[in-house]
Write a structure and sequence with these properties.
81% of the residues lie in helices and 0% in strands. The chain is built from 16 helices and no strands. It has helices at 3-6, 11-42, 47-74, 83-99, 111-142, 146-174, 186-213, 218-221, 230-238, 241-272, 277-305, 307-326, 331-367, 372-400, 412-438, 444-465.
Length: 466
């Protein structure tokens, strides 16, 4: 697909393609937002044991994610490389959203509860990675022209934010006692209802994208015939200097994006003093509405100044906002902070997709084969591996503040711990991310030269398939 052909992709196709973000982020953010709070406050697994579960889960991803990416890049079928994986993941992922909230027992230290917790996370990750990795790979393969990629990226981010808003706000409307302060038996049922709703949304929006939103470009799918060995694939991926530098802002941004929803139910309830779950929902809603509204701003910066500048500005806004947010003392202060957090979040999400697509473009120019799957697989693995750091730090802070086992209405030490986890820690991570983004090298003349070479390469590939 050359640059002129890329422009022929209709608005309907772009919108249908972006629908994949709704199902994708509904799954991920429901998992991220509820899994820790549910198994800590309802199921009552102690934080050290939960941390062990997440560490084992991340070690599994060291094998699972790169393998799926490698197999995806080598898949040969009448539908191309990516679509069979997306089809195969749809039903299992929806079912697993329900199984996440059906533990064998609650208020129990029985080994079966921990084993269930661990196995269900493994199965969730296999299904989620199979769809997410291939969906993201198709983005860089279907949309090659920079203007089309930027415009489609804007639509995707809006859909990401809408889906994230649904995933974080809907549970606050369904679950009356999200941190289980009152030990209400109906809380378990309400969590399960949230999982069912998430599953329904996943099925609907995955059907839309698979029916009307994806096509696997034949001249790129043909790269499966000349794919590298698994060893060489990993070796050349980790030799790509642009990718290695990009890992700092990418992993840092996702560390912060993951820890904020993980702890927000506890933080809003105990640190800010908001007991009404509907008010928590309103705060989250404001943040994501602002993020969606700010997306055209980030697209404008991307078009005029490039993805690197978009990332630099976004990270700075995110860093400053999260520091003020962590020390909110009432609803009004939290509301103001959520507005600025929304702006920074929008920038953090936008630069990520644009930069990784540029990196994959440069890799294809170097080796002649487009290896989108392995890049997203390695990123998925490293993002999940980095989540170990989040849960280890959460475990250490909770243990040091005598909150290892959940007790409602904690004292001053756990509240201080929550503020550190939501402010100081994310600010340090984002500061490191800013340094990595500063040295990101694909910009200016190098970016323009890459665009020229990529167009020439795709023209050659297209001519060989006709």
């Amino acid at each position: 697909m050359n640059e002129n052909e890329s422009r022929k992709i209709s608005l309907r196709t772009k919108l249908a393609f972006a629908c994949g973000e709704v199902g994708d982020n509904m799954a991920l953010n429901t998992f991220t937002f509820l899994i820790f709070t549910f198994y800590f406050t309802v199921v009552r697994i102690p934080t050290p044991l939960m941390t062990l579960g997440f560490i084992l889960w991340a070690l599994w991803n060291a094998f699972n994610d790169p393998l799926i990416g490698y197999l995806s890049d080598r898949t040969k079928s009448r539908w191309g490389r990516r679509i069979p994986w997306m089809l195969g993941a749809t039903i299992p992922l929806g079912v697993l959203m329900i199984l996440l909230f059906t533990p064998p027992s609650t208020y129990s230290q029985d080994e079966s509860v921990f084993i269930y917790f661990f196995i269900i996370m493994i199965l969730f990750d296999i299904a989620y990675t199979s769809f997410n990795l291939n969906y993201n790979a198709l983005f860089s393969e279907m949309f090659v022209d920079m203007r089309e990629r930027s415009a489609t990226g804007r639509i995707r981010i809006i859909f990401v934010l809408l889906a994230t808003m649904l995933a974080l706000v809907l549970p606050t409307l369904v679950i009356e006692d999200i941190t289980n302060i009152n030990n209400d038996p109906s809380t378990l049922t309400q969590y399960l209802i949230s999982g069912v709703v998430a599953a329904i949304i996943i099925f609907i929006f995955y059907f839309i994208i698979l029916k009307w939103g994806v096509r696997d470009p034949k001249h790129i799918s043909k790269d499966a015939e000349s794919a590298m060995s698994f060893t060489n694939t990993l070796k050349f991926t980790f030799k790509h200097k642009s990718f290695l530098l990009f890992l700092f802002p990418a992993l840092g941004t996702w560390l912060v994006i993951n820890i904020l929803p993980t702890l927000s139910p506890l933080f809003f309830t105990y640190a800010v003093g908001i007991k009404d779950t509907e008010l928590i929902g309103i705060l989250l809603l404001i943040m994501f509405l602002v993020s969606a509204a700010a997306t055209p701003l980030w697209e404008r910066i991307r078009v005029k100044k490039g993805a690197r500048m978009c990332g630099l500005i976004g990270i700075v806004v995110f860093l400053v906002s999260v520091l003020f947010f962590a020390y909110s003392i009432n609803f009004e202060m939290a509301l103001i902070c959520m507005i600025f957090l929304g702006i920074g979040l929008g920038g953090g999400l936008y630069f990520y997709d644009q930069c990784i697509a540029e990196i994959i473009d440069e890799d294809e120019i170097t080796y002649g084969v487009r290896r989108s799957g392995i890049y997203y697989a390695v990123l998925n693995f490293l993002i999940r591996l980095s989540m170990i750091l989040n849960f280890v730090i959460i475990s250490l802070v909770f243990t040091a503040s005598d909150w290892m086992n959940y007790e409602p209405n904690p004292g001053a030490d756990p509240i201080l711990g929550l503020r550190i986890l939501m402010g100081i820690y994310p600010a340090i991570v984002l500061a490191i991310s800013l340094v990595g983004m500063y040295f990101y090298p694909i910009k200016g003349e190098r970016l323009r030269e890459n665009r020229k070479k990529l167009t020439e390469l795709h023209n050659i590939k297209k001519s060989s398939t006709t």
